[in-house]
Amino acid sequence: MTRGRSIARRVVRVLVALIAVLVLAVVGVLFWASMVMRGERDAAIDAWTDPGISIRSTDHSIVMTPTGEPTGEGLVFIPGARVDPYAYMYVLSGAVAEGLTVVITKPTVNLAFFDQRPLETFTADAPDVTSWAVGGHSLGGVRACQLAESPDVAALVLFGSYCANDLSERRMPVLSLSGSADGLSTPEKIAEAAPLLPRSAEFVEIEGLNHAGFGSYGPQPGDGVGTLSRGEVREDIAGLLREFFAG
């Protein structure tokens, strides 16, 4: 009986230790996720004051709509891990001014993988849009690939990102934008993951663009050095999205 009690106490101690480790791990992840790479203030102001676009914020998204004639097409954009969603407003504002509606999600605990809300949560913010694409930057693009499995998604746009799931049999337009100076989602990594996309996927490498250049949030550890100005990136992406959505 004594031996049985001793074994039981050991089992309890092991279980308590495992629970403590698990709690510490969860706390560690949440603390890491809370260390958000903030958007640059001047870029955000430029987006908010652009007369060609209208911006409103909800508890789960940032909705950017053109003040001029909309194209009827929309893009649900998912931020990279721990990147402030507002950091993408300026880079995407050029495409919005030309008629594209963009809904930038605010991921759960700043990590797209933890955000399991359905696509309708975000498309409902712009009910006038008739055709929706999904896209995202870095790990946000990986999550966008998962959402692209839905038949309700008309197209996929990757910004310095690549898929982890197989979409090779999915019949839809895909645009993969990469940067020649990207030190994280390198051109080599994007090329290796290319077979997961439809054969018709279009790949465009932007010369001089690094990983953080897809947003306006300053330098990022492990990244390359970009040579493009913020305005040049905005103009390049607006032009590429214009051509892509024009078909």
Automatic annotation (TrEMBL):
Pfam families: Abhydrolase_5. Keywords: Hydrolase, Membrane, Transmembrane, Transmembrane helix. InterPro entries: AB_hydrolase_5, AB_hydrolase_fold. The chain crosses the membrane at residues 12-33. Residues 75-232 form the Alpha/beta hydrolase fold-5 domain. Coiled coil: none annotated. One of its GO terms (molecular function) is hydrolase activity. This is Alpha/beta hydrolase. It comes from Antiquaquibacter soli.
